[in-house]
Write a structure and sequence with these properties.
The protein contains 21 helices and 10 strands. It has 534 residues and is α/β, with parallel strands linked by helices. The strands form 3 sheets. It has a 5-stranded parallel sheet with strand order 2-5-9-1-10, with helices on both faces. A 3-stranded antiparallel sheet has the order 6-8-7. A two-stranded antiparallel sheet has the order 3-4. A hairpin with a 4-residue loop joins strand 3 and strand 4.
Length: 534
């Protein structure tokens, strides 16, 4: 046993001597590195033999060595500075964590107040606010005007009551989806009465009545052709983009349609910091154990309870990158089977989760349409082709003239009836074989001269849009003209404008020969506008 300890002692001593030798040699090397007198002795021993070429090389070599040393010193300085800059004391990190915890708690408490503020903003726009679904905050439940008991209504204001069906305050504290659960309780209570629908209207009458309603009730004036494009687009896609300069009535058009169908449009102002889906659907707060529910999420969830048409407006949608925060929704809306259109909200399941949330997933109801407004200016992002390809863009560049409209009442119609009108139109007014052949010729021309093609998605949208537009009172040629300009020619702006200038005149001549000189005016105007940009 003593032999082992002697061995182990000698081993540790040897390792220690070697480590000290390394440190000693390193220190000696650093000292010798800055031994200027030694370098000077070497210089003196050789300077007499340099000659003129040698002295020239000496000066050059010395300058190079100085530059290298300065650079090494600068890099070392930057490295040390960066290390000191990002090194945070442990105490400071703990203080930051405490501050984040406090802010999360404050954010949770203010979420109720935010909902009320949003409701006031909507009411200032003249929209009808469904106050039955506003959340009840902890302060409201403890206020003098509240009367809370299990299974009864809460009346916070005798003049303007906010009534919410609640089970018990104790249960509410254990729910992570407060707003969605209140939606469940409202629609399952006797308070909710299913409205009476008027399902006798046609698409053409809908266009005329909507235009007259906007003018007579809201003081908003639109051209009939614009209304036809808008209604027909609802039958071809779930996503519509209203674009143009500011002040032409993009948001008000979507708002007016919500008023007309007796289901106020939900306006979601997009913020510049939006980068992912949590901006739309919210997120689960690990600190409060509550889900931060957005108005967008609540609207989609609530749409599963009624048969009305519902419009969600993404106001100024390109103030952030659409393909970031709306990408998942674009993919879901592309699924061919409606029953497969669902989105995952949470990964786990709680026993008291909202009823329409199945295994943490929410079904995207087909009665919801999404309208994005876009301002074309330098303060916004360009919208990616993947977004434009899935949507139908409509330009609002001018204001319509005022006109005398008959007093028109709003219309309460089910989305199933409107979808049925669209499906019947696609059968009755299916695009003629002649125009399909002409569209194929346009596709061949675009491939040959512009190296572009329609694609199956765009062709399907054209085949769906044209019959719907005809059912709205338009013509087949005008529908083809509109879709060609908005879905195909729009892509020309990304090409070389100098090349386009040389091809524009030939393309316009081709359109005149194929469709007639009196037709395809929207496409020809767009091509001429591109030519002027060169």
């Amino acid at each position: 046993m003593n032999a082992f300890f002697n061995y182990y002692y000698d081993l540790i001593c040897a390792i220690g001597r070697n480590i000290w030798s390394i440190i000693k040699n390193l220190l000696v090397g650093i000292v010798e590195l800055f031994n200027v007198s030694f370098y000077y002795k070497i210089f003196v021993s050789y300077k007499e033999k340099f000659g003129v070429p040698g002295w020239v090389m000496f000066v050059i070599a010395t300058l190079i060595m100085l530059v290298v040393l300065v650079l090494l010193g600068y890099l070392l300085y930057r490295l040390i500075r960066r290390f000191l800059k990002f090194k945070q004391p442990i105490k400071e990190n703990e203080e930051l964590k405490d501050e984040i915890t406090r802010l999360n708690h404050e954010m949770y408490k203010l979420s109720y107040e935010r909902d009320k503020i949003l409701a006031l903003q909507v009411s200032n726009l003249g929209m009808e606010v469904n106050r039955d679904l506003l959340p009840v905050s902890e302060g409201d439940l403890n206020s003098e005007n509240s009367d809370l008991s299990d299974g009864v209504l809460v009346n916070l204001d005798d003049d303007d009551p906010i009534k919410v069906v609640v089970e018990s305050a104790e249960d509410d504290t254990n729910m992570r989806f407060n707003r969605l659960t209140l939606v469940d309780r409202y629609y399952q209570s006797e308070k909710y009465q299913k409205p009476e629908y008027n399902n006798d209207i046609s698409l053409e009458d809908m266009c005329k009545d909507f235009r007259n309603f906007s003018a007579s009730k809201l003081g908003l004036y639109y051209d009939l052709d614009l209304i036809k494009f808008f209604i027909a687009a609802l039958g071809a896609t779930k996503m519509i983009i209203l674009q143009g300069i500011s002040g032409t009535g993009k948001t008000s058009l979507a708002y007016a349609f919500g008023q007309y169908i007796c289901r106020p449009s939900v306006i979601c102002p997009v913020q510049p910091a939006w980068r992912d889906r949590t901006e739309l659907f919210g997120y689960f707060n690990e600190f409060t154990k509550k889900f931060n529910e957005t108005e967008f999420l609540k609207t989609i969830y609530e749409a599963n309870y009624y048969e009305d048409m519902q419009v969600i407006v993404l106001d100024e949608m390109n103030i952030a990158r659409v393909e970031y925060y709306f990408a998942e929704m674009l993919s879901i809306l592309e699924m061919p089977r409606v029953e497969e259109r669902e989105i995952s909200i949470v990964s786990s399941v709680w026993p008291n989760d909202p009823e329409k949330l199945r295994e943490g997933k929410l079904f995207i109801s087909p009665n919801v349409w999404y309208i994005g407004t876009i301002n074309n200016d330098d303060s916004t992002f360009a919208v990616a082709d993947k977004v434009y390809d899935r949507a139908i863009p409509i330009d609002l560049d001018t204001k319509a003239a005022r006109f005398d409209a008959p007093n028109t009442e709003p219309m309460h119609v089910t989305y199933r009836h409107v979808e049925e009108l669209f499906e019947k139109a696609k059968v009755k007014y299916s695009m003629s074989e002649i125009n399909k052949a002409k569209l194929g010729e346009v596709d061949d021309y675009v491939i040959k001269h512009f190296r572009m093609t329609f694609g199956n998605r765009i062709l399907k949208q054209i085949y769906d849009f044209v019959p719907c537009y005809v059912a709205c009172g338009g013509t087949e040629i005008d529908a083809i003209d509109f879709m060609l300009a908005k879905k195909i020619l729009r892509k020309f702006s990304s090409l070389n404008l100098g090349y386009i200038r040389d091809e524009v005149d030939g393309f316009i001549a081709f359109l005149n020969d194929t469709f007639g000189y009196e037709n395809m005016n929207i496409s020809k105007e767009y091509l001429l506008r591109l030519k002027k940009l060169v």
